[in-house]
Design a protein that fits this description.
heterodimer; A: 273 residues; alpha+beta; Arc Repressor Mutant, subunit A; 2 domains; 5-stranded antiparallel β-sheet; two-stranded antiparallel ribbon; 12 helices; 7 strands; globular; B: 176 residues; alpha/beta; Rossmann fold; 31% helix; 30% strand
Chain lengths: 273, 176
Protein backbone atom coordinates (compact mmCIF):
# COMPACT_ATOMS: atom_id res chain seq x y z
CA UNK A 1 0.00 0.00 0.00
CA UNK A 2 1.21 3.54 -0.67
CA UNK A 3 2.30 5.83 2.13
CA UNK A 4 -0.04 8.79 2.17
CA UNK A 5 -0.18 12.03 4.10
CA UNK A 6 0.23 15.77 3.89
CA UNK A 7 3.56 17.59 3.88
CA UNK A 8 2.02 20.06 6.32
CA UNK A 9 2.26 17.26 8.89
CA UNK A 10 5.21 15.27 7.58
CA UNK A 11 7.55 17.57 5.71
CA UNK A 12 9.25 16.96 2.41
CA UNK A 13 12.67 16.90 4.05
CA UNK A 14 11.38 14.30 6.55
CA UNK A 15 10.10 12.19 3.71
CA UNK A 16 13.39 12.47 1.81
CA UNK A 17 15.16 11.28 4.98
CA UNK A 18 12.80 8.29 5.17
CA UNK A 19 13.41 7.44 1.50
CA UNK A 20 17.17 7.72 1.97
CA UNK A 21 17.46 5.71 5.17
CA UNK A 22 14.88 3.17 4.02
CA UNK A 23 16.66 2.68 0.66
CA UNK A 24 13.26 3.12 -0.91
CA UNK A 25 12.56 2.59 -4.59
CA UNK A 26 9.41 4.18 -5.91
CA UNK A 27 7.71 7.45 -6.70
CA UNK A 28 6.68 10.27 -4.37
CA UNK A 29 3.69 12.03 -5.89
CA UNK A 30 2.96 15.48 -4.53
CA UNK A 31 -0.04 17.66 -5.27
CA UNK A 32 -0.84 21.15 -4.09
CA UNK A 33 -3.70 23.20 -5.54
CA UNK A 34 -3.29 22.79 -9.32
CA UNK A 35 0.35 21.84 -9.14
CA UNK A 36 1.74 18.31 -9.17
CA UNK A 37 5.18 16.78 -8.98
CA UNK A 38 6.61 13.29 -9.06
CA UNK A 39 9.98 12.34 -7.61
CA UNK A 40 11.39 8.94 -8.54
CA UNK A 41 13.89 7.18 -6.30
CA UNK A 42 16.07 4.14 -6.71
CA UNK A 43 17.41 2.63 -3.48
CA UNK A 44 17.03 5.92 -1.66
CA UNK A 45 18.57 8.15 -4.30
CA UNK A 46 16.75 10.53 -6.61
CA UNK A 47 16.87 9.53 -10.27
CA UNK A 48 14.41 11.97 -11.81
CA UNK A 49 11.67 14.44 -11.00
CA UNK A 50 8.87 15.84 -13.10
CA UNK A 51 6.41 18.68 -12.62
CA UNK A 52 2.93 18.83 -14.02
CA UNK A 53 3.80 21.36 -16.71
CA UNK A 54 7.18 19.90 -17.49
CA UNK A 55 6.64 16.19 -17.96
CA UNK A 56 8.54 15.70 -21.21
CA UNK A 57 10.98 13.12 -22.61
CA UNK A 58 14.65 13.76 -21.93
CA UNK A 59 15.24 14.46 -25.62
CA UNK A 60 12.68 17.31 -25.65
CA UNK A 61 14.31 18.78 -22.58
CA UNK A 62 17.77 18.65 -24.14
CA UNK A 63 16.54 20.15 -27.42
CA UNK A 64 14.95 22.96 -25.43
CA UNK A 65 18.22 23.59 -23.63
CA UNK A 66 20.19 23.56 -26.89
CA UNK A 67 22.11 20.39 -26.02
CA UNK A 68 20.59 18.28 -28.79
CA UNK A 69 19.24 18.96 -32.29
CA UNK A 70 15.76 17.78 -33.27
CA UNK A 71 17.37 15.36 -35.73
CA UNK A 72 19.53 13.87 -32.97
CA UNK A 73 16.47 13.61 -30.74
CA UNK A 74 14.62 11.63 -33.41
CA UNK A 75 17.66 9.41 -33.97
CA UNK A 76 17.84 8.64 -30.24
CA UNK A 77 14.09 7.98 -29.98
CA UNK A 78 14.25 5.50 -32.87
CA UNK A 79 17.23 3.72 -31.39
CA UNK A 80 15.49 3.61 -28.02
CA UNK A 81 12.40 1.93 -29.47
CA UNK A 82 14.59 -0.95 -30.63
CA UNK A 83 15.89 -1.59 -27.12
CA UNK A 84 14.24 -3.07 -24.09
CA UNK A 85 14.89 -2.13 -20.51
CA UNK A 86 17.21 0.73 -21.34
CA UNK A 87 16.45 4.35 -20.57
CA UNK A 88 16.51 7.00 -23.26
CA UNK A 89 19.22 8.76 -21.25
CA UNK A 90 21.43 5.70 -21.58
CA UNK A 91 20.78 5.54 -25.34
CA UNK A 92 21.85 9.18 -25.72
CA UNK A 93 25.17 8.43 -24.04
CA UNK A 94 25.69 5.16 -25.94
CA UNK A 95 25.15 6.94 -29.26
CA UNK A 96 27.59 9.67 -28.18
CA UNK A 97 24.95 12.31 -28.77
CA UNK A 98 25.87 13.85 -25.45
CA UNK A 99 28.61 13.08 -22.93
CA UNK A 100 27.65 11.34 -19.73
CA UNK A 101 29.03 14.15 -17.56
CA UNK A 102 27.30 16.82 -19.59
CA UNK A 103 24.02 14.91 -19.47
CA UNK A 104 24.39 14.56 -15.69
CA UNK A 105 25.12 18.24 -15.26
CA UNK A 106 22.16 19.41 -17.36
CA UNK A 107 19.65 16.97 -15.87
CA UNK A 108 20.87 17.45 -12.31
CA UNK A 109 20.49 21.20 -12.56
CA UNK A 110 17.02 20.86 -14.06
CA UNK A 111 15.85 18.28 -11.51
CA UNK A 112 17.34 20.08 -8.52
CA UNK A 113 15.51 23.27 -9.41
CA UNK A 114 12.26 21.33 -9.71
CA UNK A 115 12.74 19.78 -6.29
CA UNK A 116 13.94 22.94 -4.51
CA UNK A 117 10.75 24.71 -5.49
CA UNK A 118 8.80 22.01 -3.66
CA UNK A 119 10.37 22.99 -0.34
CA UNK A 120 8.33 26.18 -0.58
CA UNK A 121 5.10 24.22 -0.33
CA UNK A 122 3.65 24.53 3.13
CA UNK A 123 1.11 21.86 2.45
CA UNK A 124 0.17 19.33 -0.17
CA UNK A 125 -0.92 15.74 -0.35
CA UNK A 126 1.76 13.14 -0.83
CA UNK A 127 1.55 9.52 -1.90
CA UNK A 128 4.56 7.25 -2.13
CA UNK A 129 4.09 4.33 -4.53
CA UNK A 130 6.60 1.66 -3.69
CA UNK A 131 8.42 0.17 -6.66
CA UNK A 132 6.98 2.58 -9.22
CA UNK A 133 9.55 3.44 -11.89
CA UNK A 134 9.70 6.40 -14.27
CA UNK A 135 8.94 6.11 -17.96
CA UNK A 136 12.10 5.02 -19.83
CA UNK A 137 11.95 8.27 -21.81
CA UNK A 138 12.00 10.44 -18.66
CA UNK A 139 15.03 12.62 -17.92
CA UNK A 140 16.76 10.01 -15.78
CA UNK A 141 20.13 11.09 -14.44
CA UNK A 142 23.07 8.78 -15.22
CA UNK A 143 24.14 9.08 -11.58
CA UNK A 144 21.37 9.13 -8.97
CA UNK A 145 21.45 12.05 -6.56
CA UNK A 146 21.97 11.69 -2.80
CA UNK A 147 19.08 13.30 -0.97
CA UNK A 148 21.17 14.86 1.84
CA UNK A 149 22.36 17.37 -0.72
CA UNK A 150 18.76 18.17 -1.70
CA UNK A 151 17.70 18.49 1.92
CA UNK A 152 20.50 20.92 2.76
CA UNK A 153 19.73 23.11 -0.23
CA UNK A 154 15.99 22.92 0.38
CA UNK A 155 16.43 23.92 4.00
CA UNK A 156 18.54 26.92 2.96
CA UNK A 157 15.36 28.26 1.43
CA UNK A 158 13.36 28.05 4.62
CA UNK A 159 12.86 31.49 6.08
CA UNK A 160 10.32 30.85 8.81
CA UNK A 161 10.54 29.68 12.39
CA UNK A 162 7.41 27.55 12.21
CA UNK A 163 8.92 24.53 10.51
CA UNK A 164 12.23 24.79 12.35
CA UNK A 165 10.53 24.83 15.73
CA UNK A 166 8.98 21.46 15.06
CA UNK A 167 12.42 19.91 15.42
CA UNK A 168 14.19 22.61 17.41
CA UNK A 169 11.71 23.97 19.95
CA UNK A 170 14.26 26.09 21.82
CA UNK A 171 17.88 27.20 21.75
CA UNK A 172 18.82 25.44 24.99
CA UNK A 173 19.26 22.16 23.14
CA UNK A 174 22.72 20.68 22.73
CA UNK A 175 23.90 19.70 19.24
CA UNK A 176 25.89 16.53 18.78
CA UNK A 177 27.05 14.52 15.82
CA UNK A 178 25.39 11.22 15.11
CA UNK A 179 27.69 8.26 15.53
CA UNK A 180 28.98 8.03 11.96
CA UNK A 181 28.38 11.31 10.17
CA UNK A 182 31.53 11.19 8.06
CA UNK A 183 30.10 8.96 5.31
CA UNK A 184 27.01 11.10 5.05
CA UNK A 185 28.90 14.36 4.75
CA UNK A 186 30.59 13.29 1.53
CA UNK A 187 27.74 14.35 -0.73
CA UNK A 188 27.17 17.68 0.97
CA UNK A 189 28.66 21.03 0.13
CA UNK A 190 28.53 23.45 3.01
CA UNK A 191 28.40 27.21 2.72
CA UNK A 192 30.78 29.32 4.81
CA UNK A 193 28.24 30.02 7.56
CA UNK A 194 27.31 26.37 7.67
CA UNK A 195 30.97 25.45 8.18
CA UNK A 196 31.19 27.95 11.02
CA UNK A 197 28.34 26.23 12.81
CA UNK A 198 29.53 22.74 11.84
CA UNK A 199 32.94 23.42 13.39
CA UNK A 200 31.35 24.49 16.66
CA UNK A 201 29.37 21.30 17.22
CA UNK A 202 30.92 19.49 20.15
CA UNK A 203 28.11 17.72 21.98
CA UNK A 204 28.31 20.23 24.83
CA UNK A 205 27.37 23.66 23.51
CA UNK A 206 23.74 24.65 23.17
CA UNK A 207 22.38 26.35 20.09
CA UNK A 208 22.36 29.63 21.98
CA UNK A 209 26.03 29.17 22.88
CA UNK A 210 26.93 28.35 19.28
CA UNK A 211 25.12 31.50 18.15
CA UNK A 212 27.08 33.55 20.66
CA UNK A 213 30.43 32.02 19.74
CA UNK A 214 29.91 32.39 15.99
CA UNK A 215 28.35 35.84 16.25
CA UNK A 216 25.42 34.63 14.17
CA UNK A 217 21.75 35.10 14.94
CA UNK A 218 19.95 32.31 16.78
CA UNK A 219 17.59 31.96 13.83
CA UNK A 220 20.44 31.41 11.38
CA UNK A 221 22.12 28.88 13.67
CA UNK A 222 18.85 27.02 14.19
CA UNK A 223 18.09 27.03 10.46
CA UNK A 224 21.52 25.62 9.68
CA UNK A 225 21.31 23.00 12.42
CA UNK A 226 17.81 22.14 11.22
CA UNK A 227 19.39 21.31 7.88
CA UNK A 228 22.06 19.11 9.50
CA UNK A 229 19.38 17.48 11.59
CA UNK A 230 17.08 16.79 8.67
CA UNK A 231 19.93 15.40 6.62
CA UNK A 232 20.71 13.02 9.47
CA UNK A 233 24.12 14.46 10.34
CA UNK A 234 23.45 15.62 13.88
CA UNK A 235 21.07 15.16 16.73
CA UNK A 236 19.79 17.66 19.27
CA UNK A 237 19.42 16.67 22.89
CA UNK A 238 18.36 18.37 26.05
CA UNK A 239 21.02 19.44 28.46
CA UNK A 240 20.77 16.89 31.24
CA UNK A 241 18.96 18.39 34.20
CA UNK A 242 20.83 17.89 37.48
CA UNK A 243 17.77 16.77 39.44
CA UNK A 244 14.52 16.08 37.62
CA UNK A 245 11.64 17.78 39.37
CA UNK A 246 7.90 17.31 39.17
CA UNK A 247 5.66 20.29 38.49
CA UNK A 248 4.66 20.01 42.12
CA UNK A 249 8.25 20.86 43.10
CA UNK A 250 9.02 17.37 44.34
CA UNK A 251 12.02 15.55 42.89
CA UNK A 252 11.14 12.78 40.48
CA UNK A 253 11.86 9.31 41.85
CA UNK A 254 14.54 7.27 40.13
CA UNK A 255 13.38 4.54 37.81
CA UNK A 256 12.93 1.47 39.95
CA UNK A 257 15.62 -1.18 39.63
CA UNK A 258 13.63 -4.35 39.63
CA UNK A 259 14.70 -7.89 40.27
CA UNK A 260 14.90 -10.31 37.37
CA UNK A 261 12.73 -12.72 39.34
CA UNK A 262 9.92 -10.15 39.49
CA UNK A 263 10.12 -9.48 35.74
CA UNK A 264 10.09 -13.22 35.08
CA UNK A 265 6.91 -13.58 37.11
CA UNK A 266 5.19 -10.87 35.09
CA UNK A 267 6.37 -12.40 31.82
CA UNK A 268 5.06 -15.82 32.79
CA UNK A 269 1.73 -14.37 33.85
CA UNK A 270 1.23 -12.47 30.60
CA UNK A 271 2.31 -15.45 28.50
CA UNK A 272 -0.34 -17.49 30.25
CA UNK A 273 -3.18 -15.04 29.62
CA UNK B 1 0.89 -6.40 48.11
CA UNK B 2 3.49 -5.05 45.70
CA UNK B 3 2.35 -3.08 42.69
CA UNK B 4 4.30 -2.25 39.56
CA UNK B 5 3.26 0.24 36.95
CA UNK B 6 3.45 0.48 33.20
CA UNK B 7 2.40 3.56 31.30
CA UNK B 8 0.79 3.58 27.87
CA UNK B 9 1.10 6.90 26.11
CA UNK B 10 0.60 8.31 22.64
CA UNK B 11 -1.20 11.00 20.69
CA UNK B 12 -4.97 11.39 20.65
CA UNK B 13 -6.74 8.37 19.15
CA UNK B 14 -3.57 6.26 19.08
CA UNK B 15 -5.50 3.41 20.74
CA UNK B 16 -4.39 3.67 24.37
CA UNK B 17 -7.79 2.99 25.91
CA UNK B 18 -8.39 0.05 23.60
CA UNK B 19 -4.93 -1.36 24.36
CA UNK B 20 -5.60 -1.41 28.10
CA UNK B 21 -9.16 -2.64 27.66
CA UNK B 22 -7.92 -5.61 25.63
CA UNK B 23 -5.56 -6.94 28.30
CA UNK B 24 -6.92 -5.70 31.63
CA UNK B 25 -8.53 -8.21 33.99
CA UNK B 26 -10.82 -5.61 35.40
CA UNK B 27 -13.25 -3.33 33.64
CA UNK B 28 -11.05 -0.45 32.61
CA UNK B 29 -11.51 2.59 34.76
CA UNK B 30 -11.71 5.25 32.13
CA UNK B 31 -12.69 8.83 32.52
CA UNK B 32 -13.75 9.38 28.96
CA UNK B 33 -15.89 12.39 28.36
CA UNK B 34 -17.28 14.00 25.23
CA UNK B 35 -14.44 15.79 23.50
CA UNK B 36 -14.64 19.53 23.75
CA UNK B 37 -11.87 20.68 21.46
CA UNK B 38 -10.47 19.79 18.06
CA UNK B 39 -10.14 16.16 19.11
CA UNK B 40 -13.88 16.00 18.48
CA UNK B 41 -13.00 15.78 14.81
CA UNK B 42 -11.12 12.55 15.48
CA UNK B 43 -13.25 10.79 18.04
CA UNK B 44 -16.51 11.50 19.77
CA UNK B 45 -15.11 10.70 23.19
CA UNK B 46 -11.55 11.14 24.24
CA UNK B 47 -9.57 10.38 27.37
CA UNK B 48 -9.47 13.50 29.47
CA UNK B 49 -7.91 12.07 32.61
CA UNK B 50 -6.55 8.57 32.32
CA UNK B 51 -7.34 4.91 31.84
CA UNK B 52 -6.53 2.36 34.44
CA UNK B 53 -6.26 -1.39 34.00
CA UNK B 54 -4.96 -4.16 36.22
CA UNK B 55 -3.41 -7.61 35.88
CA UNK B 56 -2.89 -9.72 38.99
CA UNK B 57 0.48 -11.44 38.81
CA UNK B 58 0.03 -13.37 42.04
CA UNK B 59 -1.33 -12.97 45.54
CA UNK B 60 1.44 -10.53 46.39
CA UNK B 61 2.03 -8.73 43.10
CA UNK B 62 -0.14 -6.71 40.74
CA UNK B 63 0.61 -4.91 37.48
CA UNK B 64 -1.15 -1.61 36.92
CA UNK B 65 -1.57 -0.19 33.43
CA UNK B 66 -2.07 3.55 33.10
CA UNK B 67 -3.10 5.25 29.89
CA UNK B 68 -2.15 8.90 29.65
CA UNK B 69 -4.43 11.55 28.23
CA UNK B 70 -3.40 12.45 24.70
CA UNK B 71 -4.01 16.18 24.66
CA UNK B 72 -1.21 18.64 25.27
CA UNK B 73 -3.06 20.42 28.05
CA UNK B 74 -2.71 17.31 30.21
CA UNK B 75 1.09 17.30 30.15
CA UNK B 76 1.12 17.62 33.92
CA UNK B 77 -0.56 14.21 34.16
CA UNK B 78 2.28 12.63 32.25
CA UNK B 79 4.72 13.75 34.90
CA UNK B 80 2.65 12.30 37.68
CA UNK B 81 2.07 9.03 35.87
CA UNK B 82 5.71 8.60 34.93
CA UNK B 83 6.85 8.58 38.53
CA UNK B 84 8.04 5.11 39.46
CA UNK B 85 6.97 3.44 36.26
CA UNK B 86 8.58 0.17 35.27
CA UNK B 87 8.31 0.80 31.56
CA UNK B 88 6.57 2.80 28.88
CA UNK B 89 4.67 1.88 25.73
CA UNK B 90 4.33 4.58 23.12
CA UNK B 91 1.38 3.84 20.87
CA UNK B 92 1.30 5.34 17.40
CA UNK B 93 -1.63 5.43 15.01
CA UNK B 94 0.24 4.05 12.00
CA UNK B 95 -2.35 5.44 9.61
CA UNK B 96 -2.03 9.09 10.64
CA UNK B 97 1.32 10.73 9.84
CA UNK B 98 -0.11 13.99 11.17
CA UNK B 99 0.37 12.54 14.68
CA UNK B 100 4.04 11.60 14.27
CA UNK B 101 5.35 14.98 15.45
CA UNK B 102 3.17 14.81 18.53
CA UNK B 103 4.41 11.27 19.17
CA UNK B 104 7.98 12.54 19.05
CA UNK B 105 7.08 15.27 21.50
CA UNK B 106 5.68 12.69 23.90
CA UNK B 107 8.78 10.50 23.61
CA UNK B 108 10.99 13.55 24.19
CA UNK B 109 8.93 14.46 27.22
CA UNK B 110 9.29 11.09 28.92
CA UNK B 111 12.94 10.65 27.98
CA UNK B 112 13.84 14.09 29.24
CA UNK B 113 13.34 12.89 32.80
CA UNK B 114 15.28 9.68 32.72
CA UNK B 115 16.18 6.65 30.66
CA UNK B 116 12.92 4.76 30.98
CA UNK B 117 12.70 1.40 29.24
CA UNK B 118 10.24 1.84 26.40
CA UNK B 119 8.97 0.35 23.16
CA UNK B 120 6.96 1.87 20.35
CA UNK B 121 3.83 0.02 19.22
CA UNK B 122 2.77 0.70 15.64
CA UNK B 123 -0.96 0.38 16.14
CA UNK B 124 -3.69 -0.22 13.56
CA UNK B 125 -1.45 -2.39 11.41
CA UNK B 126 -4.58 -4.09 10.08
CA UNK B 127 -5.60 -0.90 8.28
CA UNK B 128 -4.81 -0.69 4.56
CA UNK B 129 -2.89 2.61 4.72
CA UNK B 130 -0.81 1.80 7.81
CA UNK B 131 2.87 2.73 7.77
CA UNK B 132 4.98 -0.31 8.56
CA UNK B 133 7.08 -0.47 11.77
CA UNK B 134 10.24 0.03 9.70
CA UNK B 135 8.78 3.13 8.08
CA UNK B 136 7.63 4.43 11.45
CA UNK B 137 11.11 3.97 12.87
CA UNK B 138 12.47 6.23 10.13
CA UNK B 139 9.60 8.70 10.35
CA UNK B 140 10.05 9.05 14.12
CA UNK B 141 13.86 8.85 13.80
CA UNK B 142 14.13 6.25 16.49
CA UNK B 143 17.52 4.71 17.21
CA UNK B 144 18.04 1.10 16.20
CA UNK B 145 18.02 -0.22 19.77
CA UNK B 146 14.43 0.95 20.35
CA UNK B 147 11.90 -1.73 19.43
CA UNK B 148 9.15 -0.70 17.03
CA UNK B 149 6.50 -3.40 17.12
CA UNK B 150 3.49 -4.14 14.94
CA UNK B 151 0.30 -3.85 16.99
CA UNK B 152 -3.44 -4.20 16.80
CA UNK B 153 -4.73 -2.91 20.11
CA UNK B 154 -8.01 -4.76 19.72
CA UNK B 155 -6.31 -8.17 19.61
CA UNK B 156 -5.15 -9.73 22.83
CA UNK B 157 -2.22 -11.67 21.33
CA UNK B 158 -0.90 -8.52 19.73
CA UNK B 159 -1.15 -6.56 22.99
CA UNK B 160 0.49 -9.42 24.88
CA UNK B 161 3.36 -9.41 22.40
CA UNK B 162 3.97 -5.68 22.95
CA UNK B 163 3.95 -6.11 26.73
CA UNK B 164 6.31 -9.07 26.52
CA UNK B 165 8.72 -7.16 24.29
CA UNK B 166 8.73 -4.30 26.78
CA UNK B 167 9.33 -6.74 29.62
CA UNK B 168 12.25 -8.14 27.66
CA UNK B 169 13.78 -4.63 27.57
CA UNK B 170 13.10 -4.22 31.29
CA UNK B 171 14.65 -7.63 31.98
CA UNK B 172 17.89 -6.56 30.34
CA UNK B 173 18.13 -3.67 32.80
CA UNK B 174 17.03 -5.53 35.86
CA UNK B 175 19.31 -6.84 38.57
CA UNK B 176 19.85 -10.38 39.81
Amino acid sequence: MPLVGNIRDFGLSDFLYLVDRGYKTGCLHLSHADDMASLYFDKGKLITATRKDDNVPVTDLLVRKGKLTPVQATQAAQAHQAQNGVSLSQVLVTLNLIGRDELQRVLQQHIEESVYALFGWNEGEFRFEQGQRPEPTAPIMPTPLAVEHLIMEGVRRIDEWGRIKDRIPNTDLVVKFIEQPIERTKGINLAADEWRVFARINGKDTLAEIARKTGMSEFDVCRIVYGFLTAGLVDVIRKPAPVPMLATGRPLAEAPRVKKSLVTRIINRIRGM
Amino acid sequence: MQTVKMVISGAVNAGKTEFIRTISEIEVVSTERPATDDTRLIKKETTVAMDFGRIAIGDDLVLHLFGTPGQKRFDFMWEILSEGMLGLIILVDSTRPETFRETNRIIDFFMSYRETPYVVAANKQDRPNAWSPDELRLALRLPSHIKVLPCMATERESVKNVLLELLDVIMQRSED
